[in-house]
Design brief:
30% strand, 2 helices, 15% helix, elongated
């Protein structure tokens, strides 16, 4: 999984302010490093567009990207048992 930066956001990604608010990327209009331009949602509202921002502006306005959850690792039952050092029973 590639680490996201403010320059590599994709449609649907959110950026966050320290107080807990967020804005969502609605479209990537131009990709050019710190000059990458995004169409952004309104504050805490992904159904309303509210202007464009460059990656540099998002950084200047103190928006950050939250730590991303690692993608789930696919494992067989045998691999899980080995990793845990014990047998497991799958309940359906």
């Amino acid at each position: 999984m590639k680490n996201k930066t403010l320059e590599t956001l994709e449609v649907g990604d959110r950026v966050y302010k320290e107080g807990g608010g967020w804005r969502e990327v609605l479209a990537v209009l131009n990709r050019n490093g710190y000059k990458t331009v995004y169409s952004m949602s309104a504050y805490n509202d992904d159904k309303q567009a509210y202007g464009e921002n460059t990656a540099w502006e998002l950084k200047d306005y103190d928006y950050t990207i939250k730590e991303q959850e690692p993608e789930p690792k696919e494992m067989t039952v045998a691999q899980v048992c080995e990793a845990l050092g014990r047998e497991v029973k799958i309940i359906k």
